[in-house]
Amino acid sequence: MKRKLDANDVPSPEPTSKEEQDLDFEALGLDPRLRQALIKEKFSKPTLVQSKAIPLALEGKDILARAKTGSGKTAAYVLPVLQAILQQKINDPSLRATTGLILVPTRELAEQVQKVVTSFTSFCGKDVRSVNLTQKVSDAVQRTLLADFPDLIISTPTRVLANVNNSALSLEKLTHLVIDEADLVLSYGYDEDINTLSKAIPRGVQTFLMSATLTSEVDTLKSLFCRSPVILKLEDKEEKGAGVSQFVVKCAEDEKFLLTYVIFKLQLVKGKVIIFVHDVDRCYRVKLFLEQFGIKSCVLNSELPINSRLHVVEEFNKGVYDIIIAADDQEVMGAAKQSKKSLEPADTEDAEEKEEKEEIGSSEDENEESTNKKSRPEKRRKMTGKEKDYGVSRGIDFQNVACVLNFDLPTTSKSYTHRIGRTGRAGKAGMALSFVVPLDQFGKHRPTSVSSSKNDETVLTKITKRQGKMGHEVRPYHFEMQQVDAFRYRMTDALRAVTRLAVQEARAREIRQELIKSEKLKRHFEENPDELRQLRHDGELRAARVQAHLKHVPEYLMPAKGRKGISKENIGYVGFKKTNENRIRKARDRNRGKARGKKPSGGKVDPLKTFNRGRK
Questions:
Q1: Do residues 85 and 58 lie in contact, with contact meaning Cβ atoms separated by under 8 Å?
Q2: Closest-CA residue to 209 (of 47, 110, 65)
C-alpha cells in the first residue's frame, strides 16, 4: 500500500494501528474549552507521544516517556494537567489551591511552557491561573502572585524550594507533578533541591517524567516520585531525523568561511538556518565575517539577558531574520563559565561518553544559583555527560528550520543527533550540512583554527556509524571548487578585517546594547507589545574595517547556473573610493538644459516659443 505524502512530498509515518489512525483530540474527551483552544492553535491530530500519553494520563496513571523537543511532549503533559484542574473546579468551585507543578531545568524552557499553558487556557477565563516563578521579579511581587493561590506553577526546582521554605507556596493539595527534561534536572545540580522537594510533595501525586533519554538520573526521579509508571519508549521516525538529508564537506579551516560566504551570497540554501560553532567568540567572528558581505545574522549569546535570548528565538521563529549563529557548548544558554560558580567537568560520565572519550563543556543555569544564594549554600559540583550535549541543540523550540549548518563539527555523535534534530521536524524536509577538517589540514590556518577540529575525522566516523544504525546515510557533498576559488580573494579580504580585537569589541558592544534594551525597555514593551516587532537582534556590529565593495557580487564572478537564483540587487560593482556627489545638485545640473530657459544654438531666446498662453 502506498504511503501518503504531506505538503513537502515527505511520506507521513505509518500508524501502528487503526485506533491511532482514527484518534483525534475530539476522541480524547477533553474539556470543550481546551478543544476550542486546540482548534485556534491549529492542532488537528495528536502526535505519537500525545496519542500514547494523554489517554494514560487521563486514566490517572504515572508516565515516564522518552520524547524529544519538537515531538509534542509539552502538550502531552500540559493538556492532562489542565483537564484535571478544570475538572476539579467543576467538582469544587470554591477550590483555591495550587494543584499542578511543572519543573524544568532552565528559564528558557519555563518561558516556553508558560506560553503553551497560556495558549491552551485562552478560553478558560479565570478558571485556570498559572505563574512562572523563573521571571525576574522581586520577592515581594512573587509572594503577591503566590498569595492568590495559582492553580499551576511552572518553575525550576530551586525557585519552588525557595518559596516553599519561606511559606509563600504550599504544596499540600498538589495532585499533579511534571518534570520536563528529567535527565537534565539532576545533572544541573538540582539533586539536593529535588530530594528536599520530594519530602514536601504529598504521596499519591500523579507524576509525569518527560525525557530525551532514559538514564540513571531518570531512574532516580522515578524511584522518588512515581508509582509503577507506564514507560513509553517512543521510536517516532521524525525523532530519528527521517526527514533530514545529511551531507558532509571535507575542507580546510579557512575554506569553512569561504563556503559559508558562497552558500549565503549565492543563495544556495533557502529558508531559515542555524549555524553551530565551537564557542561564543566564534559566533561573533562568523557574524562579523558575514557582515562584510551584507549578510545579516544574529547571535544566540549565553551572556545576553534572558529576555533578549528568548526574544532572539521568538523573532527567528516569526521569520524576522533567517540566520542564527549559536555555540553548542558550555557557554551557550548559561554564563556559568563566566562566573565563579562555574561548574567542573565530570568524574562520572555517560556510558556513551566513556566509550567515545570525548570532552565537551558543561552548561546552565547561572540564574538560579545567583538569585537564590541565600536559600542554600554555594557549592561546586561535578556533572554528568548529559549536560555536555545540551546547549541550544536541546530544549529550545526552533520552528521551520530549513538547514542546520555545522560550521564546527560537534565533539560527540550524540550532540550531532540533537543538532540536526532542529530541522526536518513535523514531517517537513530538512538538510544538515557539516564541515569536516581533515587531520592533515588542521592548524594550517591559525586565525580560523579551533582545537576541536583536530578530531573531526574521528567524530565523523562515529557519527556515520550512529546514523547508520538508525537507517540514515551521511553523504559527501562536493562543491565545484574551481568556481568557488574565484571568491577566495574576497574571503581573505573580509577575514583580515575580522581581527581578534574586533571580535572582542563586538561581543562587548552587543552585551551593552542588549542590557540597555532589556532593562530600560522591559516595562515599555509590556505596555506596548506591538512595538517589540521593531526590536531586532541581527543589526550590524561593525568589524574594524568595513569594505563596501564586498557586499556585492561582481557579474564576472557569478557562475552561469547561479545567475537565475540570486536577486539582481546583490550583483554589481562598488568602487573602492567614496563619492562625494550631491544628488540634488546633480539633478539640477541634469535639468538645466531642459524646459524653460533652454537657449537655442544661436544663443538667443525666442519669446514666442517660451510664451505661456493663459486661460480665457
A1: no
A2: 65
pLDDT digits (tens, 9 = 90+) for 240-271: 444 789 999 999 999 999 999 999 988 888 88
The residue assigned the cell 485506533 is 19
Q: How far is CA 507 from the centre of its chain?
A: 19
Task: Strand 298-300: give its sheet, edge to edge.
Answer: 298-300, 323-327, 272-277, 401-406, 430-436, 244-250, 474-476
Look at residue 438 in the predicted model and tell me its pLDDT.
92
CA-based nearest residue to 276, from 448, 181, 403, 361 = 403
How far apart CA 261 and CA 573 sit, in angstroms, is 18
Which candidate, 186, 181, 184, 157, places its Cα nearest to that of 169?
157
- Cell numbers of 76, please? 502531552
SS3 475: strand
Kindly tell me the burial class for residue 306, based on how many C-beta atoms sit within 10 Å of its own C-beta (0-12, 13-18, 19 or more).
buried
Q: 93, 168 in Cβ contact below 8 A?
A: no
C-alpha distance from residue 227 to each of 185, 192, 204, 230 (Å): 20, 21, 8, 9
Residue recorded with cell 566564534: 282
The Cα-based distances of 301 to 284, 329, 493, 511, 602 in angstroms read: 9, 11, 26, 9, 72
| Phi, psi for 231 (deg, rounded to 5) | -100, 120
Say whether 423 sits in a helix, a strand or coil: strand
Separation CA 288–CA 474 (nearest Å): 30
DSSP letter for each residue of 61-123: --EEEE--TTSSHHHHHHHHHHHHHHHHHHH-TT--S--EEEE-SSHHHHHHHHHHHHHHTTT
Please provide the size of the chain in residues: 616
Measured CA to CA, the distance from residue 319 to residue 298 in angstroms comes to: 12
- Which of 259, 506, 459 is CA-nearest to residue 359? 459
Residue with cell 529576555: 307
Describe the crossing of helices 306-318 and 107-120 by its angle, rounded to 10 degrees. Answer: 50
Chain centroid offset of residue 581 CA: 45
| N- to C-terminal Cα separation, the chain | 86
Strand-pairing partners, residue 443, are none
Check: CB of residue 108 under 8 Å from CB of residue 366.
no
For the residues 38-60, what does the mean pLDDT come to?
Answer: 89
Full set of structural domains in the chain with CATH: 18-233 (3.40.50.300), 244-332+389-551 (3.40.50.300)
Report the mean per-residue pLDDT for the chain: 75
**What is the biggest distance separating any 2 CA atoms in the chain, rounded to whole angstroms?**
108
pLDDT digits (tens, 9 = 90+) for 55-71: 999 999 998 888 766 67
Cell numbers 545574522 correspond to 297
SS (H, E, C) 133-192: CCCCCCHHHHHHHHHCCCCEEEECHHHHHHHHHCCCCCCCCCCEEEECCHHHHHHHHHHH
Separation CA 428–CA 403 (nearest Å): 11
Say if CB 278 and CB 459 are below 8 A apart: no
Count of beta carbons in the 10 Å neighbourhood of residue 459 = 23
Would you say 297 and 325 are in contact if contact means Cβ atoms under 8 Å apart? yes
pLDDT one-digit tens code per residue, 427-439: 678 899 999 999 9
Provide the whole-model pTM: 0.58
Cβ atoms within 10 Å, residue 226: 21
